[in-house]
Design a protein that fits this description.
Chain lengths: 231, 231
Amino acid sequence: MRLLLASTSRLYGQVYLEYLMDELREFFLSADSIVFVPYARPGGMDWDEYTEIARRGFKAIKIEVVGIHQLSNPAQQLKEHGGIFTGGGNTFVLLKTLYDTGHFDIIKTAVFKGMPYMGSSAGTNVAGLSIGATNDMPIVYPIAFEAFRFVPFNINPHYMDPDPTSTHMGETREQRIAEFHYFNPQPVVGLREGSWLRIQGDSVELRGALSARIFRRGLPAEEIPPGPLLL
Amino acid sequence: MRLLLASTSRLYGQVYLEYLMDELREFFLSADSIVFVPYARPGGMDWDEYTEIARRGFKAIKIEVVGIHQLSNPAQQLKEHGGIFTGGGNTFVLLKTLYDTGHFDIIKTAVFKGMPYMGSSAGTNVAGLSIGATNDMPIVYPIAFEAFRFVPFNINPHYMDPDPTSTHMGETREQRIAEFHYFNPQPVVGLREGSWLRIQGDSVELRGALSARIFRRGLPAEEIPPGPLLL
């Protein structure tokens, strides 16, 4: 298994994928083209439009991008490309569409066979055991919350620390994840914007400049610096 | 139908229900006792513990509180009490437990027959058409997102305005609700902490000191001051 799981596709003040360019060049090294999964539809944007954004983003490293919805037979055609990239948006819309199109199983099989998979935000969330640690609104109802299970934990992208000056009474991200652990046993990786995970087989490495916050059931949360992540 | 739907049970620096006490006194005027629904389990707290918090809160206005889980036959016994109060916590846990216990239909029937219903936070969210505009994490999987449908719209409790100084790339609440409207037609009431709705038959009134933010599909969001709300 070969994965690149990013918290976000864009940092404040930067262009799309800018902070990840060196990493992408290396991750998709031998790829001439990759398949983009546009189903999370950020801002309700349609599949073609979103694929066009990804296409422009990957132009800088001379990789062609084709939308999975543009393939007539994805189960056959996926292997003609050098990787998969699932973009961010709404995690519920993404997962529901993956199930409804039948592309969930096609992608899962390809990645378990070794096809490189990159996700950002919602695309990272679905790489975990379930979408149970997403921040998104449940604007559609998927047939299950079960995700790809590429990694034996859940990921909370766009992880935010509590604001100590806040007077807001809604739960903090950390409180929400603590509630998650009343009902779910798996660890949750709080991945800050600017961080990403590189996974190769069983080894998980945190990259980027920031630490990640790891939540384990029944244990205090832990800050882990960039480097190998033992989960 | 008689409803009191609050954004939160507690304001910053206040005790539980403090800001709502005058309203509660009047809303539950003829009630000696009410039934509490503790199923949202804030912080994973158990049903008895949470019911005890509600019991202490209502002591100030001399109303007894009994947990719905403490009734041997809620379908029969609900009518011996003067109202229902569903507390906040996790909306997915609340809705799943309402369905799993069969209490969803019992409560729905009682409220449509005229029993006063109060909700706060998650308890307010489930009074709408669906839980599709909740802020909560999907930590359990309910058999549907359909809610009580007491009102012909959805409610986003703990509504927060975007922070103009933020460099965070996760979606703002307003962006999330715009995405909701790509897939759902109903209006969403963004209810700020300190606001509540009083509903009597078809009339909806916004109470508290703050305006509410109303989101309608295909239209710009609108700020509505306290007073009658036309939806």
